[in-house]
Design goal:
The chain is mainly alpha-helical. Among the domains are: about 80 residues, DnaJ domain (Helix Hairpins, Orthogonal Bundle); about 40 residues, no CATH class. A two-stranded antiparallel ribbon has the order 1-2. Helix 3 runs antiparallel to helix 5. The two termini are about 20 Å apart.
Length: about 180
Amino acid sequence: MAAKDLYEKDLYQVLGVKKSDDDAAIKKQYRKLARELHPDKTKGDKKLEERFKEVSEAYETLSDSKKRAEYNEMRDAFTSGRMPRGGMGGGPAGGFQGGDFSDLFGGGSQQDIFSSIFGGGQRGPRKGADLQSEITISFRNAIFGIEATIPVSSRGSGASSVTTRIPAGISDGAKI
C-alpha cells in the first residue's frame, strides 16, 4: 500500500474497530472479516476480493505495534493539517516527475551552447556526471522528511558522502 493511501485511509474504519481497541479486539475483528471475505468463500466476487485485500493490508499495519504507532502518528499529522494532502511538487495531484533535459539542445551544456554561438574561449571546469545512490529510510521519515547523509564515491571531488534533504511526502522509488 502506498504511503499516500495509508494516511488518507482510516485503517481502523476499514477493520471496523476503534483506535482505542487492544490487539486482541483487532485480531478478533480481522479474523471475523477474513472468514467472511476470503476468496474461497466469495467465489470470484471481485469487489469482495478487493475488500479482503484492503482488510488484510489494514490488519498488517495495525497488528504490528511499531507500524501501528507510526501509522497513528502519521495519520494524526495528516488529519491535523501538518502534512500536505496533494503530495509534493507542481500539479494538482502533486508529484512533479522531473525529467532529464540534457539532450534538449543536442546534449550539450549551456556552456557548450554559448561557446558554439559566440566562439570558443577558455573553458572553465565542467560539471561531472550525476551521482546515484540508493538509500532506505523509515516510513516516518518518508512522511515528514529528513536530512540524510549518503555515502558516495567520487573521483572528481574526492567526496566520500553527500548530505541532502529528503522532502516530506516522498514516494517509494523517487529520485532526488
